[in-house]
Amino acid sequence: MPDIINLLPDYLANQIAAGEVVQRPASVVKELLENAIDAKATSVQLIVKEAGKQLIQVVDNGIGMSETDARMCFERHATSKIRSTEDLFRIRTMGFRGEAMASIGAVAQVEMKTKPHGADTGTKLIVEGSAVVTQEPVVTPSGTSICVKNLFYNVPARRNFLKTNAVEMRHILDEFQRVALAYPEIAFSLYHNDVEVFNLPSAKLSQRIIGIFGSNYKEQMALCDEETPFLSVRGYIGKPEFARKTRGEQFFFVNNRFIKSGYLNHAVMTAFEGLLPKESYPFYVLFIDIEPDKIDINVHPTKTEIKFDDEKTVYAIVHSAVRKSLGTHNIAPSLDFEGDVNFAPLQPIRIQNNEDAFEQERTTFASGGFSAPSSAPKRMSSAGWEQLYEPIRNQPTGEERISSSVSTSFLDDAFADSPATSNKTLQVHQKYLLVQVKSGIMVIDQHAAQERILYEKYVASLQKKAVISQALLFPQTIDLSPTDAALVKELKAEFLELGFQFEDFGGNTIILNAIPADVQAANEKELLEELVEQYKNNMATLKLDRRENLARAMAKRLASRLQTRMSELEMNSLVDKLFACQVPNYTPAGQKTLVIMELNQLHELFQKN
Fold first, then answer.
1. Predicted TM-score of the model (pTM)
2. Options 3.30.565.10, 2.40.10.120, 3.90.550.10, 3.30.70.2740; which CATH number does 10-200 get?
3. I need a surface site. Which of 90, 185, 338, 441 has the fewest CB within 10 A?
4. How far apart are CA 551 and CA 335, in angstroms?
């Protein structure tokens, strides 16, 4: 039998490896900026064209490279950071695997000029598809300049998977901000298509935050500083009153390396518990400094996920540091240990006996009310309630399975005895509607029903491109984060089709002039932030086109604002609109909008044992 296993040629092996390291232009930006930092640069310039598809250039004033090092840096697993196995557990530099330059050189046309300080001439190197085209001496300033042109020029399939320039630029902005925040002592600048986007001089962390996110952050920052023998936590958190509806400005750095950690984010959010408005997110930039041998950063190619030896201790210290900061700045309520509890005023409590409770409820039902006794004994087990919903437990939960389920038996019954306006609709806790139908009682989730109605309405508006806007009496000036501003501008056409009208005011600021006619004119800034946050959440979990995503985001966020007491006319109108929908029994995400409680199920609730 002939041999069939062969070694891959270097150029092909490098292209495969590049798939892990270089996923999009932002990946190149991250690697080159980190290399500049490791080179001890004090000034770094990033220049991109066409969102990095045409050009990514990083110019630094770091230590530069010799002729040999310039050639060696494009070899796989060539690094100046690792000499022994023990070095892997003492890593404090940004790059250490020796894969970045080899991977970039495999999928782009790269030109590098570098010169060590004190040298007379530098080295110019041109690499295309892992092959060195030229290497020659050159007159160049001390430091390194790397140009990455025509990314994925030799892998067209990968290039076709890149998103629009606006999307790719948002990712570049994300990477730039993370590096700039981690190293405020280094001056950074960013140019896109010859337009200056950022010019950040060397500064303190607080000044760097203001330089990136805007001067309005000056008032909302609270210092966070905690030192323990195990680790230290420093940085800034946002005051609760400045919390936003988007969670973009939340950053964790471990040993100056940006990380993503839902676990640590939970520690911060629980520290803010009771201080934030509903569905609001605080700003924070927190740095954790810990011994390198207590963590493992080599668990993901992008090095944004790490493992801690003792996660529980890290969680507790971060939670305590944030809580302490809130208390120090008189943000969180504190206990008064000097007060005498013996003289605390007691509120009178009226204890109602069972006979009083029964008489109250008998009177309530006799007068035509429909409320449950708040002090009634709870004798029914949870198992009984679970059996109540057994007939409808196996309904589908996804949007792709909704259309086939519209004709289920309980829905057919609801349509057969469609709720007539003569049947009184009752609202329970401003969350549910009770409607009598032929087979029993229909319970409608008010929020879910409104979401389904609004979703189909906005889908129709986006398809017909016929929408009515209402002009704001006072146009709203809205400051957004750089990434959110880029997203809003990218979706300008879709926002216009929904009824939003705004203009670019420069930088990350827009002026909102009009909103959809059926949206209440109040808290427009908050509404826009909510839509952006929901849109980003949908992007992270679902594969939707822009219009579908925006319609879902609008429906979900506006429905959450409509949980109010309704008149009988409004309740009947909601029921009628729900059953006029194409898919009335589920929200776009697959949540039920209604359930039917059969008469026999109601009878069983009151059967004697």
1. 0.67
2. 3.30.565.10
3. 338
4. 46
